[in-house]
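Sample intake sheet
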Amino acid sequence: MKFYSRKLIKPGDLNANNTLFGGQLLRWIDEEAGIYTMTKLNSRRTVTKYISEINFVSSARQADTIEIGLAFSDIGRTSITLSCVVRNLVTKNVIIEIDKIVFVNVDENDRPLPHGLTREDIEREAL
């Protein structure tokens, strides 16, 4: 798992319990995973297809810094699957785990478009 970005938790990111709002965290994850996918597939047109069960393990509070980790899991004809872990930068405590996030490469009409890559292509690039 590689950690690609960091976020500082600010007052506007909090819920009524004064902890990180889950919706804000999911927004950051979706954005980061989308960027990761676009770079791996060399495509500007990808869409989120599926996000598996989301496991909220612990919370984050104002002034905490979190980091978003993504890892390649699988590849299909038009799709790529990732896993995600978000953790506290300082304590390394896991905040959230997601086993599967699937993105699909699409054409200008938002129809699935084969990307032409293989597992070996993605893994070779990671080295």
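Comment: The longest helix spans residues 22-41. The chain has a mean pLDDT of 96.
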